[in-house]
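Before surveying the methods themselves, it helps to consider a single example record, giving the amino acid sequence and backbone structure tokens:
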Amino acid sequence: MKYKTFTKKERVLLYFLILLICTVLLVSFFDVFIDINEKRIHILDTLVEWFLYVFLVMVFSGFLLSLANSFHELNEDRLILRFGILGFMHIRYSDISVISEYNEKHIPLGGMRILKNTCYMAFAKRSLVKIELKKKVRVYYLFFLKRWVDTAIFSVEKREEFIKELNKKAEKMPQ
């Protein structure tokens, strides 16, 4: 089963932000090139700058799109936590010690952070889930750099349903 990381409103906001960035790129592209053609300036000089600009906008939009589509998946034998291109982790159900709601308001700034053997995968402080592990698990982040953690704190759209389903799966697994 798949559970989205962000709520529908948050995903729509991210999609709107991507659309806005692409629209600004398109409008500024036409405005500048019309201005350049009217002044008869050499287009080749600005072409490299535009390719760089378009590349950076595409990378930023791809980053936001991957975040908007990030989800957590309950498979047959493991939980897979995905947080866009920022990172992911695989947790076997037999490695889970405690599953609980996390209501602390003191978490690091949004994004994916690894502090003191704890992996935080959240932008908002709502609907957080905390999983404590029996042993350390590998976390892959920022293009497959590896760290080991023994606690994962992350946000999920339907927290209660997710915790119930995860508890069912974890109880079925042999210890």
